[in-house]
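Morning. Coffee machine broken again, so started the prediction first thing and wrote up yesterday's gels while waiting. Chain of 250 residues, entered below exactly as on the submission form.
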Amino acid sequence: MILQKWGIDAARITELDWWQSTERNGVKYTALPARHDSSRNLFDQNKALWSGFLIEHKRGQTEERFYFHGDSAQGKHFDEIANRVGKIDIAFIENGQYNERWPNNHLFPEQTAQLAAKLQPTRFMPIHWGAYPLALHTWNEPVLKSIPMARTLGVNTLTPLLGQVFDVNTKNRRLVLPKNNHNFWLYEISFFFFFSYLSEKGIIKQKFMIYPFRSSLCLNLKLTLLNQPLKPHKKPLKSRTKMPMGLFQI
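Came back before lunch.
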């Protein structure tokens, strides 16, 4: 097992088949069926089950139940999950890196929206998109397609800010965003180094500064809000810690 090769004690490792459960610190995890290639090298192709998870725990007198999709192509297993799992507070469903050339690994946007409607969660949150494209579609295409589709199907979507603490009752902000971003990389890189230079020279000292920057879980216009004062810095830029990143909600 690869975890043991990395030095993880076998007593800390739990293996589950589909529909088996384990509990840790008051949180119950149930492995759910999923459809995706699995391998760690050239010789162990599809020798292990891919899975999603049902995560259950109690907060006070309230039981919370979350569905983590975990990457999965379309299949009959979603019907079984919908029939057996029951109430879901938040469904985290994969939304991105799809292509007709590998249809057995990921959902297409319309399938993501349809699955969200099938599971009937209180809220649906798209995941597995936005950081960078692994497929041939643009990085933001998945949510630009799936979110309107899901809303049309009556699904209550959830798109929190990156780093925002949220729950099933968190409200989305509706913002008007530009329609295309053909030159956005040039825009982002240019402004990033421009503001970094001003900060390095001590020209910028205000407490809050807005940086345009590409981040995960975001749309065409992305803004990063620094929560630390910008001060003159004598060290090279590369020695700094990474900036916190934010996004607009959909």
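Confidence is low (pLDDT under 50) at residues 205-250. Going to sketch it on the whiteboard this afternoon.
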